[in-house]
Design goal:
The protein is of the alpha/beta class. The chain folds into 2 domains: about 130 residues, Aspartate Aminotransferase, domain 1 (Alpha-Beta Complex); about 250 residues, Type I PLP-dependent aspartate aminotransferase-like (Major domain) (Aspartate Aminotransferase, domain 2, 3-Layer(aba) Sandwich), CATH 3.40.640.10. It contains 12 helices and 13 strands. Strands 2-8-7-6-5-3-4 form a 7-stranded mixed beta sheet, sandwiched between helices. The C terminus is likely disordered. The structure holds pyridoxal-5'-phosphate (PLP). The site of pyridoxal-5'-phosphate has 14 residues, from helix 3.
Amino acid sequence: MLNDPQSSPNEIYLDHAATSFPKPPGVIEAVVEWSRRLGASAGRGDYPRAVETGEMLRECRVRLAALLGYSDPDRVIFTLNCTDALTVALRGLRLRSGDVVIVGPTEHNSVMRPLNAMAREEGVRVERLPCDAEGFADLEALERALRGNRVRLVALQHASNVLGALQDIAAAGSLCRAAGVPLLVDAAQTAGGIEIRGEEWGVTYLAVPGHKGLQGPLGTGALLIAREADLEPFRMGGTGSVSEEEEHPRHYPDRLEAGSHNAFGLAGLSAALRWLGEQGIGTIRRHEKRLIESFLKECFALEKEGVLRVTGPRDFERKSPVVAVDIPGIDPKEAARRLWEKDRIMVRPGLHCAPGAHRVAGTWPRGSVRFSLGPMTTEEEISRALDALRSVAASSEVSKRATPPVAARS
Ligand SMILES: Cc1ncc(COP(=O)(O)O)c(C=O)c1O
């Protein structure tokens, strides 16, 4: 879609599921511009630079709310990343012993670790939804589970960071709405690349990273909250508002934010959101789908030859732009090392902070090699990555024939 001079011509970055690179035009410039010209903390003074920073933050909230389908920009809470947004939601619900949280089948550790800690320390009960072999959650099982007592939350990924399975959030949202149970959606892999209509779909809490598909800098993220919902503050402190009170404010967004903002990161995120608005999410999705389709087709051909196995949905329409493959006879870390050393291709091997997804894929505990694409990825890069993958897979076949494969290694 766009070849940016920030990226070295010989390197191919295919780790957009971790963070996007290069950033769109205007993002780095906005970070630098804010740092040079303003550099003041919003809400901490009435002088023009602090006021302008406050206006920039407000604009960023307005853009996020509009893009992700939320009606009140004050209920856009800035966070450090998506993990932090999920924690603000999970801790803000003040779950107690015996409360039930229903989770999706392939949730990331950003959801599972805080919930497992709450299960251990506070007696919260965590129930995992079943799914099919491609990672799609069983929504009939969700409907049944919602009939249970003390269900306080459903936490579901929009897309798995390993399998790419795009869950039907609108359907899950309408089940949750009918049952009167809030829905927390982890949109780490979709925000900015796939359309999200938060409030319309019944998503009570939407957690997003600013630095992946939303194309902003690392250190940014947000939690969007539907109008009818509330959360208790997870972190408290100075907000620059109601300073006469020694209790944390109840109004949004200050209710869930404390301390000075990452204003330079958010200046970059706001510029990225403007760029996304100009491109249109539909254009980005079409571009990424075209690349995923050609990548998958070639992988299926290699699969037929028996040199690798593709995990997750086979239908690119129901897949976010990630393809994780299992190459029999070669350790994923070794495959990634060869891809980098020989062809300067950056991918992520291993378990991707999502052991549940690998159990579904049958790649636990060895992991897989994940290729993830973004709006800046080009057809030429995909074709070079496929050539490189073919050569790694072929070499592994040779070594597999020479020495029998070692069974599952950790
Ligand atoms: C599905 C999913 N959830 C949560 C996260 C955590 O995002 P962040 O790195 O912004 O904390 C990731 C990161 O890869 C992810 O893929």
